Amino acid sequence: MKKVFTFLIAVIILLGLAGCVQTTSPTSATFPVITTKLPTTPVGTPVSFTVAKGDAPRVTAPNVTDAQLSTLVSGNNGFAFTLYQQLKKNSAGNMFYSPYSISTALAMTCAGAVGNTQKQISSALHFTLPQVQLHPAFNQLALDLATRGQNAQGTNGKSFSLNITNALWSQQGFTIQPAFLNILAQNYGAGMNLLDFIKSPEDARVAINQWVSDQTNNRINDLLPQGSIDEATRLVLTNAIYFDAAWQYPFKKELTEDGKFNLLDGSAITVRMMSNRSSGYGYVEGTGYQAVELPYSGKEIAMDIILPDAGKFNSFESSMTADEIAGIIGNLKTGDLRVTMPKFKFDSSFSLKNALSASGMSVAFTDSADFSAITDQPDFEIGDVVHKAFVAVDEAGTEAAAASGVIMEIPSLPISITVDHPFIFLIRDIQTGAILFVGRVMNPAN
Predict the structure, then answer these.
(1) Closest CA to 120 of 324, 445, 365
(2) Vertex 407: Cα angle to 401 and 410 (nearest 5)
(3) Each residue's pLDDT tens digit, 298-346
(4) Alpha-carbon gap, residue 5 to 336, rounded angstroms
(5) pLDDT band (50, 70, 90) for residue 381
(6) What's the N-to-C CA distance of the chain in angstroms?
(7) What is the pLDDT of residues 110-129, one digit of tens each?
(8) How far apart are CA 24 and CA 333, in angstroms?
């Protein structure tokens, strides 16, 4: 039987991450330095930073078993939907994020955590592998993704693209443990860039944002919002992902027409609806939902769309788990199918501090955090984890980008006051506010 599948509401888009992995230069305890000048910023001032290159190359053949890699992927996918349930609490509209980007940035951070801090991060992120296996597994996953899309096409005549980059941004002169730097260089290809957060926090923010923009084809701009970097910042860990792929079965533009999209409140809007028919689509329907899989060029990556039945969106979304989604995807069957779905384009941005704290890693954001595997600086903690993502879906394919930043800082220094010139003083009763004495000191030596 021929199926006609019209998409009105999609729960989530699962982008299989694949492609070419770009890495920054590895780093270690030895730092030959190179000053790099970023392109001119919008205000017209070039921003420079120093790249500290070490001698720990990325491991290209990590000792990782299939079981370890499967455990990592399963945990990452579990985190994806744990986070989904947290993010939707404060997001009534469209939402898009890259759990892979967030997991990678926090895995790098976890490499520097110790004791209960490490346990909480691992639990919240669903990291079940021991640290000695976790980071090589992340490395292996990235290396596997690098083999995808070798002969695939991108949108609008471009080549397929998935660029994944990691970088560290540290305060000049801030001491970082060599073992931590080597773990990140060998397993994440994360190079060290030196900035001056203390004297020029805004220039540092601009430099990091420019790097993120460059890595994401200018799709992720201002990852770090104003005020997120200040003189207390000592380290920022960043991950950036850029994805561009054509559909294996492109939608024909001449078939795109205005159509109705029904909103949850019962109203309807008119949007541009794409339509295509193919025997290469995967399809499954179950109690309360339909699902379809749309492969990208090369058939190594796909978009999976889950469509709850009318009136069932909220209940389906609230109970959605990684295991349930895996079960749906596992039951997809290829068949003759007509797909009608809207074109869409939007971005999302998040401060993840509250969501991650609610997921069980609250100690990492307090002065009780233990990141002594990063630095011997006391009271070193995560200030915030920021994330931004972009997606555009049309007849040609999909362009998506995301970036994550872990901002690490020392507690803000107390306000300092030195009473070294004439002053006025009061002696008052605190409970009632009654002023009992008033005075001034012009010369305390008299």
Answers:
(1) 365
(2) 175
(3) 998 998 999 988 888 899 899 999 999 999 999 999 989 999 999 889 8
(4) 11
(5) very high
(6) 102
(7) 999 999 999 999 999 999 99
(8) 40
Rounded Cα distance, 249 and 271, in Å: 22
Average pLDDT, the chain: 85
Q: Which residue has the tokens 């991650």?
A: 356
Q: Is 402 within a domain? A: yes
Count of the separate structural domains present in the chain: 1
Q: Mapping DSSP to helix (H, G, I), strand (E, B) and coil, where does residue 340 land?
A: strand
Query: Any idea which residue has 């507690």 for tokens?
Result: 411
DSSP state of 18: -
Structure token digits, residue 203: 């220039």
Q: What is the pLDDT of residue 50?
A: 66
Q: Which two tokens stand for residue 232?
A: 């207390």
Which pTM was predicted?
0.86
CA angle at 139 for the pair 20 and 320, rounded to the nearest 5°:
85
Domain containing 205 — which CATH number? 3.30.497.10
Q: How many CB atoms lie within 10 A of CB 49?
A: 22
Distance CA 69, CA 232 (A): 37
**Residues spanned by the domain of 379:** 15-246+345-409
Give mean pLDDT, residues 38-65: 67
161-171: strand order across its sheet:
33-40, 46-52, 191-195, 161-171, 233-246, 397-409, 381-393, 344-351
Which pLDDT score, from 0 to 100, does residue 148 have?
Answer: 87
The pLDDT of residue 21: 33
Would you state the structure tokens that stand for residue 396, as one six-digit string? 């040609």
